[in-house]
Amino acid sequence: DVRIERKDIARYSAFSPNYDDINDYFILDGLEYADEFTMHILTRQGVTVHTISKSPGVDFTGDMWWDGRLDGGDEAADGTYFYVLKVKYAGQTYEYKGYVELVRPIQ
Q1: 32: number of Cβ within 10 Å
Q2: Which residues contact 70 (CB under 8 A, 6 or more apart)?
Q3: How far apart are CA 100 and CA 54, in angstroms?
Q4: Which of 39, 45, 65, 75 is the most exposed place for a label (fewest CB within 10 A)?
């Protein structure tokens, strides 16, 4: 018998990057099993504000999560963002699309 096991991606709908060590990053559980992936974070207008990727042969690290900062380093505003994630695993390509709510506490 041959058994093929597929690890799926657990997706969450919100995070609050306020550096209290609780939900500070937008994390998609399961990406650590991907051979490679690219995720684009977009505004409602379709503008890419952050890109995260892992190349083949590169170890998965914690800095592959979104911390609520734009590619230039500035903090992204509160609101809804969308993502497009392309994952390669075991010779197959999968695409996931969704949204995430970035919530910053009132200071």
Answers
A1: 12
A2: 49, 50, 76
A3: 20
A4: 45
Going by the DSSP 8-state scheme, the letter that residue 96 receives in this structure is E
In tens digits, the chain (107 residues) has pLDDT values of 665 555 678 888 999 998 888 899 998 888 888 899 999 999 999 999 999 999 988 887 777 789 999 999 999 999 999 999 999 988 899 999 999 999 987 76
Host H or E run for residue 88: strand 79-89
- The one-letter amino acid code at 3 reads R
Q: How many CB atoms lie within 10 A of CB 54?
A: 20
Q: pTM for the whole thing?
A: 0.85
The CA distance from 85 to 94, in Å, is 8
Please check whether residue 57 is in contact with residue 34, taking contact to mean a CB–CB distance below 8 angstroms: no
